[in-house]
């Protein structure tokens, strides 16, 4: 039996009361803060490069700015995981399991039709 693949969570740029989260570059800032957490660790000095960690990536999905967080981050650095999850909680952002995202996107599309 193969090991279970880590799940992905979407931190959505929508607050629990449905407002768009500001500032508009929040996802890039959050993912940038997590950029050093990568497979094999971050290389420093001349070997360093700029890029997002594969465990925390900004993305726009169904018109909603999100950060995709891979649960593997929890095993690599629990404090980084806590930072990201606390950011979402403290700012009252919606968090969804990737498996349920299609339902969220469909609901969002329906709400846009009414506004």
- CATH top level assignment: Alpha Beta
Compute the average pLDDT.
83
Low-confidence stretches: 111-115
Q: Taking Cα atoms only, what radius of gyration do you get, to the nearest Å? A: 15 Å
Shape assignment: globular
Sheet with most strands = 4 strands, antiparallel
| Spatial ordering of strands, largest sheet | 2-3-1-4
Strand content bin: 15-25%
Order of helices and strands: EHEEHHEH
> Structural class, judged by helices and strands?
alpha+beta
For the record, give the distance between the C-alpha atoms at the N and C termini, rounded to a whole number.
48 Å
CATH topology: Alpha-Beta Plaits
Tally of DSSP β-strands: 4
Number of structurally distinct domains: 1
CATH superfamily: Uncharacterised protein PF12112 family, DUF3579
Helix fraction by DSSP (H/I, runs of at least 4): 25-40%
Helix-strand layout with pairing:
Layout: E1 8-15, H1 26-33, E2 56-61, E3 64-70, H2 72-76, H3 78-90, E4 93-97, H4 101-114
Antiparallel strand pairs: 1-3, 1-4, 2-3
Commentary on this structure:
The chain is an alpha+beta fold. 35% of the residues lie in helices and 23% in strands. The chain has helices spanning 26-33, 72-76, 78-90, 101-114, and strands spanning 8-15, 56-61, 64-70, 93-97. It has a 4-stranded antiparallel beta sheet with strand order 2-3-1-4, sandwiched between helices. A hairpin with a 2-residue loop joins β2 and β3. The longest helix has 14 residues, at 101-114. The radius of gyration is 15 Å and the shape is globular. Residues 111-115 have low confidence and may be disordered.
């Amino acid at each position: 039996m193969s090991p279970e693949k880590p799940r992905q969570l979407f931190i959505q740029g929508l607050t629990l009361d449905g407002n768009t989260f500001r500032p508009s570059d929040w996802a890039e800032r959050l993912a940038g803060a997590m950029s050093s957490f990568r497979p094999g660790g971050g290389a420093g000095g001349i070997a360093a490069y700029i890029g997002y960690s594969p465990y925390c990536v900004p993305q726009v999905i169904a018109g909603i700015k999100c950060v995709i967080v891979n649960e593997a981050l929890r095993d690599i650095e629990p404090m980084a995981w806590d930072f990201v999850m606390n950011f979402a909680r403290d700012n009252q952002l919606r968090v969804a399991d990737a498996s349920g995202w299609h339902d969220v996107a469909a609901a969002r599309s329906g709400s846009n039709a009414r506004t």
